[in-house]
Amino acid sequence: MNSRVFNIPGGIHPPENKRQSLQRPLRFAGIPAQLILPLNMHLGAPAKPCVSVGEKVLKGQCIAQSNGVVSAPIHAPTSGMISAIEERPIAHSSGLNAPCIIIDTDGQDRWCDLSPIKDWGHRDATDLIEIIRRAGIAGMGGAGFPSAVKLATDKPIDTLVLNGVECEPYITADQILMTERAEQIMAGIAILKYLLKPQRILLGTEDSKP
Q1: What is the pLDDT averaged over residues 155-161?
Q2: What is the model's pLDDT at position 2?
Q3: What's the pLDDT at 189?
Q4: In Å, what is the CA distance from 18 to each residue of 14, 102, 208?
Q5: Neighbours of 138 (CB within 10 A)
Q6: What is the helix (H) or strand (E) element at residue 84, kind and residue range?
Q7: What is the pLDDT of residues 84-103, one digit of tens each?
Q8: Rg of the chain over all Cα atoms, to the nearest angstrom
Q9: Most exposed: 27, 42, 103, 137, by fewest CB within 10 Å?
Q10: Can you list the domains of the chain with their CATH numbers?
Q11: How many whole angstroms separate alpha carbon 26 and alpha carbon 20?
Q12: Residue 126 CB burial class (10 angstroms; 0-12, 13-18, ≥19)
């Protein structure tokens, strides 16, 4: 793994203020009484609802299916009842409303049946990418690009870059996840390596910044 540090000239350098959010470990945030889930939480076409108002749902259940090649399904973050499918204000610079699914939660956080893939190293790459697509995995950058679209490439990959650097002040989500969830992250890296077969892997973290 390359450990060189590359400096980028120019720009501004505000105080990072990273220590405040690293004083305590990750902990359960609780379950709100209601969840408002935009149908477009990713780049591309908004997902299409596959549930009805009044329907009870379980945590992890698909509530909106992908609606195009560049799209991703949405799953219920917890158990509860679908109370509405309508436009609501969303966290977007436009200030406009957008179609959303509203869940009145039941506080029980009950999971749907799960089917973990333990033998992924013996599965066909196409099957694995389809599983990733159905899981609704998307990038955490500004675009929220669906991961399955990126992985479905036939071009040779020279370098797989894993971006764990958070340039914004205060934000330490990646850093605390790499500290407390390292085993799961390494498992994800192994799957990416199996699918993309890169020549090398570069990991950028807070410690690798200039």
Answers
A1: 91
A2: 55
A3: 93
A4: 12, 34, 15
A5: 22
A6: strand 80-89
A7: 999 999 887 777 899 999 99
A8: 19
A9: 27
A10: 34-105 (2.40.50.100), 116-208 (no CATH)
A11: 13
A12: exposed
Phi, psi of 187 (to 5 degrees): -65, -40
Rounded Cα distance between 67 and 72, Å, is: 7
Backbone angles phi, psi at 132, to 5 degrees: -65, -40
Q: Answer yes or no: are the C-beta atoms of 83 and 31 closer than 8 Å.
A: no
Short-list 53, 90, 94, 47, CA closest to 72? 47
- DSSP secondary structure, 115-175, as one string: ---TTGGGS-HHHHHHHHHHHT-B-SSSS--BHHHHH---SPPSEEEEE----SSS--HHH
**pTM of the full predicted structure?**
0.84
Cβ atoms of 121 and 113 closer than 8 Å: no
Query: Over 80: is that where the pLDDT of 41 sits?
Result: yes
Cβ atoms within 10 Å, residue 85: 17
